[in-house]
Amino acid sequence: MDDGAEQSFCEFLGIENHDGHELPGVSTPDGLEEQPESEKPGVEPSVLSPSVFDETVPLNSDRDSSSSATFDIDKQVRIALQSQRVAVPKQLWETGVWQLIFTNQNPADSFSVFGQELHRPSIFQGPVAASDDVEPSSKKARGKHRFDRVVRFKPDLTWKEQTDAALQSSVKLWYLLIGRWKRESAMYIELHEFRWEGDAITMLLDIFAARSPYTLRKRALALMHICDYLELHWCPAFPILEKDMYAFLCYERDSGAPSSRLKGYMQSINFCRFVLDLKELDEVVNSARCRGTTKPKSVVERNQTSPLKVEEVKLLHSTLTSGSELWDRMFSGAALFCLYARARWGDLMRAEKVLIDRDNSGVACYLEARVGSHKTMQSQQHRHQFLPMVATAKGLVESNWIEEWLEVRNCLSLDFSRDGVMPAPQPDGQPGARPLDSQEAAGWLRLILFGDALPVEGRKVASHSLKTTTLSYAAKRGLDINLRLQLGYHTQPFRMGLTYSRDGAAASISALEQLLCEVRLGLFRPDETRSGRVMQQVTAQSSDPIVIKDEEESRPVEPSMVHQSAFPGANIIDSNSPNLEGTSSSDSDSTSGSEMEETTFEPYATPGKFEPPSAPEGFHMWQHKKSRILHLMENQNNLVFTCGRSVGPFHTKEGLHPRYDTPICWSCFNKARQ
């Protein structure tokens, strides 16, 4: 029963018990004085609760023998309850029928004709205090902070401890899963050759090295569902046969499973085939009808996360600058870091260290997070190095948000090396050890932007919207796709250029700063449609100083005042540069509108690309089958290459499809050009 609805014993019986009135049929006989509680037979003083004596009238007070005294039933019931002995906890083998097996006790002594002996509960809750003295409940106590609406209070573990725990749980799940497979399966045999379970789990850890623990768990749960189906329908155990897999996929489809879930089952089968090397699944992997069941019957548009609008980004800046709660300001700064760094929230929370890049005057200009555990860490481009996620201090507003965020972190006594980028706050308002997860970040973001943590109808605003925002702006502005790939930390074919660059993000960061400058000056409006995004464009001229004439004074503008553009359109002249007002009026008489249209919009020059090698006129190419090196040979020759080497058994001239990176024989090509 709820504490707020607790009834006394008299109320339960329907008897009114008013102070100073006698209860009908209940009274103390005249001439008898009530004994103190400690002197009553069968009552031990040591077991009496202090709450028993918290009454208005003491039990041992003198009473007039000529008058009938009121009898407090509630008090007597509590006394009777407190007089019972507390049950001592017993082991399983000391109770019930087990005590007859493990002890020499007589069965007649174990069972009583009067039933089980009553004992007082070990925890007794006294009467409910007055409403003014009631402590606030835990839910009400949690409501004093705004983040209580989105932050879930989970075990306070660091991200490394969470990853390790998830990995152990996933590997043990795989250990149980393989135990349900066929005994003649190669993986089952290898796993059960070990004498100890720990050795088998160690082998699974080696097999699943560098795999995400959450991916392992997702694949294992899908295979568990397949094994349940096989056992339910009396089919042979896993590895599954092709006909059984097709029947299972049809069963799931008829049950209303979406195509994404069916595709997940096939991905789990592919995972077992190529990671665990189960060759028995080749027939299932290559089955056309199994793959056909995963195709959706109708085209469904992808529900992608929405980028934040310019006003919503400015609202984050405003919350960071003058938010009502300190933790709201802290989260707004972390959200801006994720937004301008184009980072996934989970990757940013696993940053190994954070570097603050200050200029000569000591002002923070860039914030860089070095991330070792991220989504593309197994690619050749990002292997054996931290991924630098860089955010610029000057975003869509003029203020330096990095300095403001560092000030908030100092107020909370946070350190990047100890607390990370965004620790989850505890109920008492102190920072915890665990980082804020992506679901909590999504709810907190919606709470700041829209006043409610629930999803917004018509838009999918989540933590991934932070990464999408600036990348979407860059795509709408026409930024080169190679720069956009670098901004999004995606892999590229030109790895060698990044290997020797030492700062491969410099060009992309510069382009992003120019894009943000356009949005800040109102020259580019990413929230508008295609017809109204670009408001003004100035033609890029030569490298000579640009002379801007004025009626009062003519003064050249240095090239340093012009931001070189990395995308189609204008070189943007900084608003702080002198003599920028009224520049178009002086030349308006000498330049017609048609001429302005011709000079304003120039075609965008695409960057140079590597072309595959081709044979010069009078030569044809041969290729070595193993080394893939291309040689040249004159058309009238069939035995000797231009470099002097003879045609061997591994050389061929049929079916050649060279790429831009196909190796060539420089001796042949140099001699052919002479």
Short summary:
The chain is mainly alpha-helical and about 675 residues long.
Can you tell me about this structure?
- The longest helix is centred in the first third of the chain and has 20 residues.
- The chain has 26 helices and twelve strands.
- It has four domains: 134 residues, no CATH class; 135 residues, no CATH class; 159 residues, hpI Integrase, Chain A (Orthogonal Bundle); 55 residues, no CATH class.
Low-confidence residue ranges:
18-68, 123-142, 538-564, 569-607
The CATH homologous superfamily of the largest domain is termed Intergrase catalytic core
Number of helices: 26
Number of E-state strands:
12
CATH topology of the largest domain: hpI Integrase, Chain A
User: What is the 3D form?
Assistant: extended
Largest sheet: 3 strands, antiparallel
Biggest sheet, strands in spatial order? Answer: 1-2-3
Give the helix level as a range of percent. Answer: 25-40%
CATH top-level class of the largest domain: Mainly Alpha
Keywords:
mainly alpha; 674 residues; three-stranded antiparallel sheet
